[in-house]
Amino acid sequence: MTSPAPLTKALIYGGKTGWIGGKMDALLKESNIEVVLANARVENRADVAKELDTVKPSHVFMAAGITGRPNIDWCEDHKPETIRTNVLGTLNLADLCLERNIHCTVYATGCIFKYDEAHALGSGIGFTEEDTPNFDGSFYSQTKGYMEPMLKCYPNCMILRVRMPISDDLSHRNFITKIAKYERIVNIPNSMTVLYEMLPASLAMAKKGLTGVYNFCNPGVISHNECLDLYTKYIDPTYTYKNFTVEEQSKVLKAGRSNNELDSTKLMKDMPDGIKINDIKTAVELCMQRMQKNLTEEFGPLPDSLPKEVGKFEQIINAENAEVLDKHCGTAGRDKIHCLMVDVMSVIGICGETRM
Question: What is the largest CA-CA distance in the chain?
């Protein structure tokens, strides 16, 4: 694509039910851009082609994908379904958009890397956009790792590697809300994406006509503990958490989890004028400040007004019954039951949201 077309009409895949797609819908409308939420499923090529020809968008935003319900462990037992959307569907959309000279923004993932000798934990050396994915510990990440090298062949696509997205609300997709529900967490510095800052950036990048792969994270890394310490500081001073090791975590998960640092040099160099992106630690603290304000306005003074599912004293497995489970199931069994209970609550609806 030679010169960027004006962003006059956006078609969003994943806009009706998706978290990021829904946020992009609101953001585009705030910018007075006409928005259409796609009906076609991306794996159905003929339906997508017909929809593109009917809607005639200037830009497409691809936020549809399978992450699993309630989490990526689901993908381990549903591999064809995962491939159908995450690989075939994404490539369908990219290919059909190319045929029609339509810019396509793909909200992809950076969970295709893991710390290694060349990019050691704590070294400050992050993976660049040119590095080959090295993490295949989950089938979800495998599909994303398959898809990205092929997607890079499409000159109309901007591929954004999102990681551990954070929002200033209690959405069950919010990384901080998610880990706050677990009794135990690992504590590893990671690249993360604060949506309040980064989604407007993606809109500006699409308007600029940028293409290719971008590590779509705030600069720097932040650990799980640092995130929850900020949650404690601004949202719930009574909240506490415990750590466990990656080895202990692996005993209660069906699939591995990616931990990495992504280099933000290219992103910051190409960022359109007028867009401010804070380092991740600043961005998360500002996010928690906004969350405090938002929740106080919605529910009242914190932490007493927090929904029961979030408060410290409403943890799914408390200290008393944890001892009983330890006795009968062992620590690994207890943690597995806890994860399953959290997962069930995510399916039936956390904080008023229902996953269909």
Answer: 66
Tell me the mean pLDDT in the region 193-207: 98
- The answer to whether residue 181 scores a pLDDT higher than 70 is yes
Q: How many CA atoms lie within 13 A of 338 on its CB side?
A: 28
Note whether 228 and 239 are within 8 A (CB).
yes
**Overall residue count recorded for the chain in this entry:** 356
| pLDDT given for residue 269 in this prediction | 98
Bridge partners of 60, per DSSP, are: 11, 104
pLDDT tops 50 at residue 339? no
Phi, psi of 335 (to 5 degrees): -65, -35
State how far the Cα of 295 lies from the Cα of 312, in Å rounded to an integer. 16
Q: Give the SS3 label for residue 137.
A: coil
| DSSP code string of 190-220 | B---BHHHHHHHHHHHHHHT--EEEE-S-SS
pTM of the predicted model as reported, rounded to 2 decimal places: 0.85
Residue matched to tokens 């503990």: 225
Cα–Cα distance, 165 to 159 (Å, whole number): 16
Does the pLDDT at position 356 exceed 90? Answer: no
Structure tokens at 90: 């994404």
Q: Residues 6 or more apart from 66 whose CB is under 8 A from it?
A: 75, 78, 81, 82, 85, 86, 140
Residue 338 has pLDDT above 80, yes or no: no
> Do the Cβ atoms of 251 and 312 come closer than 8 Å?
no
